[in-house]
Amino acid sequence: MSTQRLGAPGDLSEREREAVEALLYQLADDEFVVADRYTDWQCQGPTLEADIAIANIAQDELGHARLWYDLLEDFGYEESELIWERDAADFRHATLCEQSFESGDWADAVVRSYCYDVAEFLQLEALAETSYPRIADRIEKVQGEEHYHREHAQNWLERLCEDDDGTRRVQQAVDDLYPYALTLFEPTAKEADIVELGLRPTSLDQLRSEWYDITGAFLAGLGVSVPEESELDDLVAEQTGRDGDHTDDWQRQYNELTYTYRMLDRTEARRLMADPDEA
Amino acid sequence: MQDHYKRYSMDIEEVKQRAGPREFGPTDDMPEEYRKAATRMIQFHANSEIMGAYIERPFIRQAPSLDRKLAVSAQVQDEIGHGQLLYRAAENLGIKTREQMLDELANGEGKFLNCFHYPLDDWYELPMIMFFVDGAAMRRQATLKRTSWEPYAHAIDKICFEEGFHIKHGESILAELASGTRRDQQRLQEAFDKWWPRILQFFGPTDDQSTHSDFSSAVGLKTMGNDALRTAFLNVYLPKAEKYGLEIPETPAVTFNDDTNRYEVEEEDLDWDEFMQIARNQYPQGVGQIDKRHRTQEAVEWVRDAIENPGAGSAAAD
């Protein structure tokens, strides 16, 4: 673990820069796409309070996406290229993030959020040791908000599982989402360099194993079962997203979210807030 | 204060006499007529917040930049929050529970603002709601800081504060489109032409034709009439529309009367049949919006069941 601290964005070698970019795309795209999916629940939540809470979480995740995309802008990219004009197949988020919700399937929303938030918590912990200073500077801000997300998901899972029908629906959501949740731990093309260069010193296998223990124990306590750890490799969804291979849900989501930008023939994305470095 | 222990409700005359800004609250024994009138008004406002959020909702996903997406999401969230706050203020009156009011909304019995019965077609139409309609709402709400039911006035304080940000964002969208290409400007003008009559109708029929106005004004719930509100709105928003290069349509005719110091709108130029159809929740597009609300609420009914009556299936636990 005695990796060297990397330099400023402009001082990176080509190998370093490619690994940093791959990691940032993965982080930013996960946050952006899952947040956009959460917003599906705005005006559709089971209670007004639930509606407000999920909107909060979506906005936090959008804010995090903004922080990570902003670090890609260090390399000269602009928001228009990073999001609005990028090909759908160039996004690197895990396919868990893009799955559409069945109408009313709140169990999916809380199970997904739980799986995602525990994975993010572990990933951020690992990134706290990163060799890249620009990422290190932003970890604390993101970590501060993630705690509340995890608590929110856990509370909802506990409430739903006090009821038989609720437990059944949670189990169904776990069964359906598990193959996609595992894609959070699938590698991008630069994974070996990401670990070797100490960008994220912990391997994805290690993270997955920790995630499995935490989520498995919590869900078991609620009477919800998960697959055996030995089965995980075979269970991973065919499309992981990490290599640009996505499910049909993503193409639909992508078309809709870029619709106005294309309709307006935009060439740039309007900024309203201060740059994160100045905020 | 001295009325805490009063055993019988205040009579209407006393209400009218005392009526003033933030005069009455949950510790006052208000007569049923007052409580009903206040409930009707606040429930209408709460419903409008929810249904307003519904028509803006598609633009969270469709917003053309990250910051705009964040802003629209926050805005829709605020509106749901306003609904929550207002239903609570209405609930305090002891006429209806929040559940009843939400059920009425989903069942098509709850009334809400005319403008929120029309879904938005695209991004060009968004500032029609976020700037003009919200601006009109702000005019009305500002006068309600002096309403006689204190919990309502209290909710209004928070609502006006947040609404100010929404209008600013709406204006920023409007400004971006207005300074865009010629096509942007044309599409914006088309959206304005389509929405302008609806915006004029936002304030309802003229005072002499308004059904519930008299009583609400007499007991201090309403503090300004429809005509005065519309004038106050036009004073500010006509110049703003022009500033962004929008042409005010020739019909409905809007003229300023120097004698009365008021804007006058040619009432016959407005489609009051459509307005009344909307008021009865029977306008086809509005029915579509209400049905959407109904379906989404029905789809999550199981969640409310699970958390309110947790147990094994339908059998009672004890």
TrEMBL record, chain A:
Gene Ontology molecular-function annotations: phenylacetyl-CoA 1,2-epoxidase activity
User: What is the top-level taxon of the source organism?
Assistant: Archaea
Which UniProt keyword terms apply here?
Answer: Oxidoreductase
First-level EC class? oxidoreductase
InterPro entries on file: Aromatic_CoA_ox/epox, Ferritin-like, Ferritin-like_SF, PaaA_PaaC, PaaC
Please name the taxonomic classification of the source: Archaea, Methanobacteriati, Methanobacteriota, Stenosarchaea group, Halobacteria
Under Enzyme Commission nomenclature, its number is: 1.14.13.149
Q: One Pfam family from the UniProt entry?
A: PaaA_PaaC
Q: What is this protein called?
A: 1,2-phenylacetyl-CoA epoxidase subunit PaaC
